[in-house]
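Notebook p. 47: complex prediction with nicotinamide-adenine-dinucleotide.
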Amino acid sequence: MPDPVTHFIGGVPVALGPTFAACDPVTGREVRRVHEADRSVVDRAVAAARAALPGWAALPVAERAAWTRRLGDAIEERFEDLVAAEIADTGKSITQTRTLDIPRGAANFRAFAEIAAQRPESAFHLKDALSYTVRRPLGVVAVIVPWNLPFLLATWKLGPCLVAGNTVVAKPSEHTPGSLAVLAEIAASIGLPPGVLNVVNGFGTGSTGQFLVEHPGVDAVTFTGESRTGSAIMKAVADRVKPVSFELGGKNAGLVFADADLEAAVEGSVRSVFTNGGQVCLCTERLYVERPVFGEFVERLAEGARGLAFGRPQDESTVMMPMISAEHRDKVLSYYALAKDEGATIHAGGGTPRFGDERDGGYYVEPTVLTGLPNGSRVNREEIFGPVCHVAPFDSEAEAVGLANDSEYGLAATVWTSSLNRAHRVARSLEAGLVWVNTWYLRDLRTPFGGVRLSGIGREGGTHSLDFYSEPTTITIKLEAGHG
Ligand code: NAD
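Predicted complex, structure tokens below:
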């Protein structure tokens, strides 16, 4: 990866614009610089995507699918470079990066190649006419992604977007330009037609992200990030009524019933609260536990939190990763302080770990378990996006469902129970886009993914993604009665 990190426009690296610092979250030290795209660089990227659009859109879907499959294969070939880039930007553990982040990137390109290539088209035979639909790409799509799962989330959009015939200008988070910079090199190395995939780097508001979504040459925006950023983007594209697909924040609930396998519920909750340092939109931040097992559950969860290994990213036994930035660490710590002010009991964590080495300059916080706050407290209502959850007791199924649904968000929920009836009953009462029973983050890429309320608009996954990235045209042909 070049230093400074460049943009990728029209199939070549472009080193334009001032540079800003990229820091290693493990130490807080500047590790390299990144070019920031101003309006003129964004213009150039959109123009390149526009120029590539007719040729790319005209390819048969099988050929575009062959290209995205090739991207998947080439990701495997550059696997370790991608792992290194992702770790350098995020401080993620090598085990997670090797088993989740980068493999899912390859899987995203391959899965959507298959889904698109096999997608049936519908035709209706009327009495004296034939009506059928063809799907056309949206055009030039802005793909804007956050820093928490940089490669996984970018490719989750790029796979279906490209295979549907769109060309792209992608913007990674200012904190995590590395893995998309490697993907750009991969695209160039396999000869992906220039301009089909462009990458610009920079910040959001008043910078590259805003210039991109406002650009008149951008036909649609697909965005994953904070709910308030989604709201700002929606306002920015309102005049042109651009289609938007939004995967936004969460304040996800987990319900633990007394009939659950407690061991599995504790282990699953340790994963669902603390994976990726709690920096996954699907992470659980509110746990509700049936009163007879509440005390034991809290104790065991706190024990689990205290046992999470804080090694260096390259150490295979490491679990905990730092927060992405000093600013985000301070935000998470401000919620720890707020919880104390609001009268919470802290069962684990609540502060910052001390290492006695250069990691003390990094952005680590302790995994934290809280109890004792009302559902209306800010800690229970606002997305913290760190390794922290609040646990509260409940006495009935109806109360548990009511507490879980009492949120402005609605992305994911988890239910722990051994009762089949309860599992179905509760799962369908939860107002969330995804509900897991006795598991967490188990995904099939064909299923719809997304949230309700502040958690987003639309669904990604399988044909749901392809639906967003293309528009149907219905064609109806009058058939004349036959002669003879
Ligand atoms: P963010 O909204 O601050 O930034 C996301 C991206 O948007 C970045 O690339 C940023 O530069 C850009 N951006 C910011 N302001 C912009 C603007 N005005 N116009 C255009 N682009 C702009 O989010 P973040 O802090 O990077 O990520 C964390 C958030 O993402 C959390 O809220 C988390 O829940 C959410 N998230 C949601 C999902 C999901 O699938 N629902 C997945 C991962 C993360």
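Notes: The chain has a mean pLDDT of 97. The chain has 15 helices and 22 strands.
Next step: compare against the earlier run before touching the bench.
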